[in-house]
# Entry
Amino acid sequence: MARVTLDGAAMTDWAAFHDASQAVFGFPEFYGRSMDAWIDCLSYLRDDDGMSAIRLGPDEVLDIEIANSAAWRAAQPDMLEEVLYCIAGINERYEDYGEPPALRVHLR
# Structure
C-alpha cells in the first residue's frame, strides 16, 4: 500500500506546501509549483509518465496522511480546503477515465 505523509504544521504558505509535496510525492525537478502542476502530477499515478516517484497498480490507492491537520486548518484554512478540493477533483478525473479513485486522505 502506497502512503505519504504531509505535516500540516509545516504548511505555513504555498511555497512550503509545494516543497513538501515535491519531496513526498517525488515530483520531477521541473515541477511547476502551482496547483495546476500538482493536479497534473497526481492525475497519472497509474501511468509510467515520470511525474511522480509513486506508481500505483490498477486498483491501488495512495493514502495521503495529513499529520497535524488541525494546526494547518487553524493557520491556513483556505489552503487546506483547496488541497482537499483538488484531491476530490483528481479522483473525479480518475473516474472519468473509467478507473477507481486513486487518492484517499486521512486527516490526523
Observations:
- The mean pLDDT is 96.
